[in-house]
Amino acid sequence: MRLLLVEDDPQLADYVLTGLRQEGHVVDHLDEGSGAFAMMMETTYDVAILDRMLPGLDGLTLVKSLRAASIQTPILFLTALSGVSDRVEGLEAGGDDYLTKPFAFTELLARVNALSRRRTPQAVDTRLQVGDLILDRMARTVTRAEKSLDLLPKEFLLLETLMRNKNRVVTRTMLLEQVWDFSFDPKTSVVETHISRLRNKVDKEFETALIKTVRGVGYRIDAS
User: Fold this and answer.
1) What is the DSSP string of 55-77?
2) pLDDT tens digits for range 172-224
């Protein structure tokens, strides 16, 4: 399996990584939340194991942001927060399972295996389509009316975020968080500039404009 571990305790991370890799799994490791969000937007994982108390972007916010971006990777919280209310918060945020520290590695492994079996093919959404616009996450390609579009990495991620939320408004704040990993407003026109460049590539040469501005709110992509 391809797994992601997000844990900022180096000793614990090393313990879990060693155990999972000895079981034959491919495991990526990050020690903060913002990078984990970007990684999970770019890479398909069978299961992600997350601490709740992470620097940068805490575990709850990370999971909520992933679910808002339609990332359905099964998520196991691995955390010292053991109260009933903590477990409820984790599951309601979008987590699939919750294991408290200290823990037995055999139980962690069993829960990871159970989550991977629970996953359905529909959870892996690698091809997005809006009208005649098609984005393939695995091949990293974008076409419209069968014409290939050459997008820069941020443009690709921006378009993917819009397409994952097709027919729904995506706010400027959401785009700053999900595309640029900003947890604050940098007071620049970075979003507007990239939307303009994206429109030039996605809409300019075609009869129907797909990227719509919702004034004072954000942007929406649809084929209506």
Assistant:
1) SSS-HHHHHHHHHHTT----EEE
2) 888 888 788 776 677 788 999 999 999 999 999 999 999 999 988 899 999 87
Secondary structure (DSSP) of 127-149: EEEETTEEEETTTTEEEETTEEE
User: Would you kindly state where each structural domain of the chain is located, as residue ranges?
Assistant: 2-123, 127-221
The domain defined by 127-221 folds into Arc Repressor Mutant, subunit A (1.10.10)
Closest CA to 7 of 40, 47, 50, 48: 50
Choices 3.30.420.40, 1.20.1730.10, 3.40.50.2300, 3.40.50.720: CATH for 2-123: 3.40.50.2300
Strands 26-30, 2-6: parallel, antiparallel or unpaired by DSSP?
A: parallel
